[in-house]
Amino acid sequence: MKYLHALNKIEGIGSQKIKKLLSFFNNTGENIWHATYSDLQIALGDGKLPEKIINVRKKIDPEKEWTYLKKENIHIISLTDKTYPKLLKEISNPPYLIYLRGNLNLNELPAIAVVGARKYSSYGAQAAIAFSRDLAKSGLSIVSGLALGIDAIAHKSTLDINEKTIAVLGSSIDNKNIYPRANYQLAQEIVAKNGTLLSEYPPETSATTFTFPARNRIIAGLSLGTIVVEAGEKSGALITARLALENNREVFAIPGSIFSENSTGTNNLIKAGAKLATNISDILEELNFSQIKLAAKSCKKITDDKNEIAILNILSDKPIHIDNIGKISKLGTATTTSILTIMEIKGWIKNIGGQNYILL
Description:
The protein is α/β, with parallel strands linked by helices. The protein has helices at about 1-10, 15-25, 30-35, 35-45, 50-55, 60-70, 85-90, 120-135, 150-160, 185-190, 210-220, 235-245, 265-270, 280-285, 290-300, 305-315, 320-330, 335-345, and strands at about 75-80, 95-100, 110-115, 140-145, 165-170, 195-200, 225-230, 250-255, 275, 320, 350, 355-360. The chain has three domains: about 1-65, DNA polymerase, domain 1; about 100-290, 3-Layer(aba) Sandwich (Rossmann fold), CATH 3.40.50; about 300-360, Arc Repressor Mutant, subunit A. The relative contact order is 0.09.
């Protein structure tokens, strides 16, 4: 991985080139790094890239670059790693390497993207807050692009209720290059509160007009669907929506005023076939999310206690009486009552009245 990271710092080597090189050099990054010009030419074909690799790698110290990653608490996951995001792997051009800070378990929760305009209205902010919070409470990780405006609101709203958010950057994720700089502190908060910063770009990569469209495909690829909260006619959020459609993901749009330029893009999406969303039920139902939601909630309840596990397997979002829980679990009334009390204190379940319990 150390040598693949060093190779990734050479401009012109993308995911497809890395795959081709690994195939030729027995899946070993070190072999690629020390390869001769003739072998690189055979592996990549005629062109300027083999010569560029030979020349540029003289200026790169793989050990030094690896040390810098550790200093910045940056981790790398490759496409062949079992922890690589499952949905992202399904898109047509997934990045071979992704760089992460913060929570490394990207398969912990199903995810949904919330994106929108940099210049937003009070209506857009209100919608972004409400949708992000409610979807996060329902067991979804909120994905966005750390951009000014709706993206930042989506991240912040999720953090405010201590739920998980993933920020995909159009720059590298080392502190010096986090972009936009206005959201530097937000990026630090995401890492501190069990969220994730993610990029396909190696450290010391600045944001450019070309990196953001590439970033958008990752936002769409990580997510079950993309929600466009507010967007003008030429908003970058519409690129994310298009990429979501190209990868067979759902696209939702929150309708806005016909007199607002900020709603032109979202209203046009709805006319073009995007799902109109006025509350999270519109989204959860379209995704058939009831079962996914329960599975996601159960993933948060990590326990080795066999009695707690037995009760978790019984409960759902439909109320069930304590007597029935005791009978099905065969734990008896006294034991069931004790365990339910502990689980309610943990915030896993709720007594909705009359000794009827639901899973939270």
